[in-house]
Protein 1
Amino acid sequence: MRLHRSRGFIGLAIALAVILAGGLLGTVAAGAAPPPQPAATGDGPVAERVGTTDVRAITAKGPRVLSNARTPNETAPGAKEEEKGEGSVSTSSLPRPSPANRSLVSRENHRGWEGLDHADQRLAAGGNQFSLEPPDQGLCVGHVSPNGPEFGPEVVESVNDALTFYDASSSQFTPAISLSEFYGLPPTIDRTTGRFGPFVTDPKCYFDADTQRWFHTVAVISQNPRTGALRAPSFVYFAVSTSAEALGSYFIYRINATNRRHPNCPCFGDQPLLGADKYGFYISTAEYDLDPFGGNFNGPQIYAFSKAALESGSIGPVVHKAGLTHVVRGRTTGTVQPAISPNGVYETANNGTEYFLSGFDCLAAEACAIAPGQFNKITIWALTNTKSLTTATPNLQLTLKDLTSEVYGTPVPQRQRPGPRPLGRSVGEPLPVVEANDSRMNQVVFADGLLWSGVNTVVAPGPRDGIAFFIVRPSVSGGQVGGTIRNQGYVAVANAFLSFPSVGVNGAGRGVIAMSLMGPQHFPSAVQIDIDRDGVSGPVEIVRSGFRPEDGFTCYEAFGFGPACRWGDYSASVAGPDGTIYSATEFIGDNSRTALANWSTFIWPQKP
């Protein structure tokens, strides 16, 4: 999730009922033993292995089909999360960025394909799902197609709340599998009994080219099985493949994120972010309390694991770095993004190093409420001595350094082209604007000795939204991380809005920034721009044009949401084994309509 407005709500792909989905966590995976249930008064171990899952076994079971699944009678909306809006600190005196506009061209990518959409996720698990938006895009690419190497690598896509398996030729090997099924949990909502299962959200995935293993993560919050009320315990579940094959079996692990000994807890870990280096696998979360939900913020948390142990089926030693709130002039962040590698080349100096980047997008004194105005600093972090994760007594050192950057600022709601809106018209509400959320750091890639990332930012004139990107050269000296910004810049298009960038580059430092575009003349579309170590070049390319406006339930006050639609909360862009960049982002397609939402995703390859 992503705490909406208040900056906490797990980037929620909120379920319509805002009875997001609930219940005590149950059995793990197809054929696996059920996990132990933690006592109500304690947290249990920091992390543990809870079972295994097998993609082919799940697919072979087949769904339990509901006859009315495509046009379901949803649970009536309940009390929605409190929206705090932007923080009360006065707007920064830094001016809004005013970059030169890039030209916009239509270059439909005919090698791409429409990925999972709202109908797919809603109908997964026999329809025992909620209507959810936004999708929260996960994508990972590696190994080789089950059909043979001539069909390219395997491609795994994950959204709220489903995943599926393709190859680079767009062959799809499984139907949409619910994330609850994949992790062996009860369904989000059993539409026969009316009982709630766990709320599952914020999927991410990664293929480790070094060890040829797949990683997948989600946030999980328990709920009352009868009422759907959120309650402890909360977890981060993650899966690690047992082989190089994405379609095979996985070890299932979980982190207990309840952390009752922390201030204002029991808590949950918002929007788990994943990364890896030579020796470790890393998950970063933002910790908020469960009651009042998202009312208190305990800062970022970083969990570090031995990659080798996880890949062998053991939890191994666990290092938890807690309460990492870093404040500059009243600003902080909950998003400390760990780096991933496109080709398995990691920083092995300092006995192993994992880098992170973060921005300053929220207010420390207001439970990480969105910070208004502009700012001009980012932070580089480093965990060193990560090779010690392979020992029984790991000793990791975490340091950080602020870097003065170009100015970036909180984005404004995005405008979209008018068009058919059956849901909006049915409730008599006008064309909605679309959220761009905030200016937190997005996906970070360590490639060609550099760190690559980007943020949403307001730009002038307008106001409208563009992208600020950063290319950082990291360093560690005397145990202290440092860095210099090798390149930075903006991407903006006249009379249009850009949002949710993912910088995807290969080992040579060449690739694209993938993102969404919309505006008064544009339905929400998938776009990209070329990037290398010298910055961006060429026009912004529309790789798949949108067909209609965003018209989901979160757009409208009649459903307890609105007046702005949820969008994002993130895209994905990763390199395949041959250096081709595969990207995925949200857009509005022509065949994803259900009664309550119409979002789609588009996946496309691009050879730099």
Protein 2
Amino acid sequence: MRGRSILVQVDRCELARSETREPDHLRDAHGHIYARGNVARRHRQAIRVQGKRDQLVGNDADSDFPGRFGWGYDGVNLFAPTRLYGTPDDLRAFVDRAHALGFGVILDVVYNHFGPDGNYLGAFSNHYLRRDKENEWGDAINFDGKNCGPVREFFITNARYWIEEFHFDGFRFDATQTIFDNSEEYIIGAIGRAARAAAGGRSIVLFAENERQETKMVRAREQGGDDLDGLWNDDWHHAAIVALTGRNEAYYSDYMGCPQEFVSAAKYGYIYQGQPYSWQGAPRGSPSLDLRPEAFVSFLENHDQISNSASGDRVRVQTSPGRYRAMTALLLLGPWTPLLFQGEEFGASTPFLYFSEVGDETLREAVKKGRFEFLAQFPSAASEDMQATLAVPYEMETFNRCKLDWNETNKNRTISDLHRDLIKLRREDSRLRLQSEGGVDGAVLRSQSFVLRYLSKENDDRLLLVNLGSREDLTPAPEPLLAPPSDCDWEILWTSESQHYGGPGAVDIATDEKWILPAESALVFRPRRR
């Protein structure tokens, strides 16, 4: 990993893709595996990329759960790969096929609760759960109370099982802020260390979702940390969505979508590292000034964030084409570890909604009620009229609406090309492939424009200029980061304005007299000897 990885998340809705249409060939450099039917079939036709082992495919939670469809986050049989993906041997074949094509596969594991229907561990012993503690999904798991030892062993063994039996290349730990454990060794750290031991000589990577942004999770054990490799960066996502859509309601309300937020994220990881956070009425985050940007996973889309809206619309359809191209360039060229969500790499227009068929009618209605109440935190989704239009989680139609339209892989070729070329640039350019090594600095240029400079010791710097607003005449330009290296001029290496990506066409923006930034654009410059 270490800064050159692309993380790609695939989700449960792809299990029901049409079984008659096969992709024509492996062609897109997206870092993406598409899943459908069962695992035996999906590995034959699903991996559509020019892969390197520095790209990882994130597979959503695989533990079995009741119902014909669901996200997989209410697993009840933690050692049983879901039957919806086929047999255990099918899953092994899928991972082996990904490895043969040069991809690592990480598994999303849910160790913060058991699903509400079908898990009976609590009937065997009261010590599996902490009835005195709850998280938003039910009883907390007993990782630090009376007789917690066998419970901890159960989950540690589960992690080893996925690594040893299926050869997964790591984990993404779901919602770790709801895992309560005051033990000397935090359970996620213990699980991660056991997983690395189970991998033997293989290298695995470990990421976590943590709403409180606790950076101890990526610090070394001798520093009181948990030895993980990375954390999801919701700050980056929230700033990007505000910048692209102009909406800053609910948990977006502490973000402005301004250039300083992206400069700060490039240099320091989290934007909030203990400052006041009005949405929660408390400080948010913990210090990360000393951490490398590669430890933070940034994204425009993931399963939660797309579905946390009334319509489940993709980001691409909520903003202008120019802004979308520019923000995609920032995502894929920035010093963080970028993540793409299934279909994002070819501009999928299909929505992604919350769907779950778990439980009986009473439980399903309770899930529906809870989901609608959650969405009501957004004023745009809170009105009675809007609530009446929300998708019902347990209806098959909700699930079916989320399936990708594979015709869009050809229809949206400009977006496919955009992602392919940016990933190639990130991987192969002599400076960008080093990411933060050598240093990254940045500066605000105007109210909606900024620059990131990738520093080097050999006059091989790169400039990434991003303008999310209207055309800018940078006169005067009192920003030293814009100055070329000694005895060099800048030349354009890449631009989102290319007609190849649906843009108006590239123009020379830097002269001896001034800089001119095209509207809603991103440009990469490299030095050229005079």
